[in-house]
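Sat 14:20. Reprocessing the chain from the morning session after the first attempt stalled halfway. Input below, unchanged.
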Amino acid sequence: MIEFYIVIFGMIVMLSCLVFELERPEIVLPATLLLFVLTGIITPQEATRGFSNEGMLTIGLLFIIAGSIQNSGIVDHVFQLLLNHSTSRKHVLAKILFPISFLSAFLNNTPIVIAFTPLVKKWCEDHHLSPSKFLIPLSYATILGGTITLIGTSTNLVVHGLLLDHNLRGFTFFELSKIGVPITLVGLCYLIFFSSYLLPVRQSSPIKNLDSLREFTGEILVLEEFPYIDKSVEEARLRSLKGLFLVSIIRDDEIITPVTNATILKKYDRLIFIGDITTITELQFSKGLQLQSNTGSYFPFHQLVEAVVSHHSTLLYKKIKDTNFRSRHNAAVIAVHRQNQRIKAKIGDVVLKPGDILLLVTGSDFHKKVHTNDFYYASPIENKISTHRHSKQGWFSIALLGTMILLVTLGFISMLTGMACTALVLFLLKIVSAQEVKNAIQWNVLLLVSCSFGIGYALINSGVATYIATLLMEASRPLGVFSIILAVYLLTNLFTEMMTNSAAAVMMFPIILEVSRTMDLDPIALAVTVTIAASASFATPIGYQTNLIVYGPGGYHFKDFLKVGIPLNIITMLTTVVLIYFFWL
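Finished this time. Tokens:
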């Protein structure tokens, strides 16, 4: 009995930490798993079983294959052409949402939204339209499309792997299409024809002109009496200024940027600082330094980037000054926006949260040094250089993926075998390098999914899964099987709004096994219900990572997701439950 209460306590603490963002999920879930191991609720073997699950391994391989297609630039080029020939809101939504949904049925949703968010924003700016009318539909379309095939989302593969682990048949490649295609079509029609009336007109870009940039910049003139003339920037102690970043030096008609620690200072140099300019007045008390009027005329010589903090960034819940940001990324944060509002505090004291937009001034090697998991990019950066070789490799990757899908669908090979062979061919032909493989795999996703398996075993071993299943059946039994499917859907959907969709599916799996055993229902029917419900996370920006990606760039507030997402949640739920009852029961 004590095990029952330990698991209940552990789950409540875990969900509270996730909902209130007290710590990153990559820390919360492993810590919960460790608690259950130390208390003897699960064995070390059960705790680590998720790391060898077929679904989890398939997800890792899928990241590699999808990355090779994404890096070729083919998809970006096609959608750029679609946007260039669009004229109205409904026209552009219809032209991009259907192809994006189809694409997300075969590729990972996250890189699709990351790639197309800046394209859509740029198109909106060029046509004087609000990005807030387009970016939530973009995210929702990828979520809907991910329900069409077995490889559409990691959740589909996770539930497939769980079924195999329990000696049940897994999903066929297009089995989920019975639900996925109808809800995608209905959902896209809702987004195209009705979302405009629910979404706000809101501009997302925090910084758009030089006048507004001046408050972030300052200029200091080096006079003859400065004691560090012909000395390095480091020796002059100009690298460790609180809240300020020396980005360039104007010397006669020459502009020196980026400035390194070894850069030598000369007489009459103009030092350009960016950051918390309220602190720049401290410099004018230094001998030989004179504060100049701020014109902002030097900004064209610097690269400005808007970057969205990812939900699994290593910067989360830390003060900017404690992240070693400047040396780590060769960039300085000059403004932070949260929920479309600039945070009025010293930059170094701002604690970063998922979805924050950072306005950065960057060095020339920013994109080489940047940690790929730290940011989702919201501003158009440099266009990818797509050579003929890249294009050929991209088409080859697409053909290889298509061949693999055909072989899996016809039953010649398993999904894991097909993915492994495809990834191996790409690696042997040097279409993907070892570094690209490392960057493509979202290790945090794999960690969360793997830990969720162990937590699922804790729910089974402690009796919590049986208890929840009993409550669910007792509440639903008087209304029949239809109400039980509806209850499973609602409980899964509630979980997925509080944690990652894959973790929610894993938590629900032992519960539906108990329900199917007790009520003699087809476990596949309930597994499909959980799979769709875990992915159909539209009501909050935290329930699905693509929602978080567009949260900042679209200038959205939390309530915007509620207004558009709740009706879509209801439409998807009713369509799913009716179709499952029709096809499986």
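Residues 558-584 form the longest helix (27 residues).
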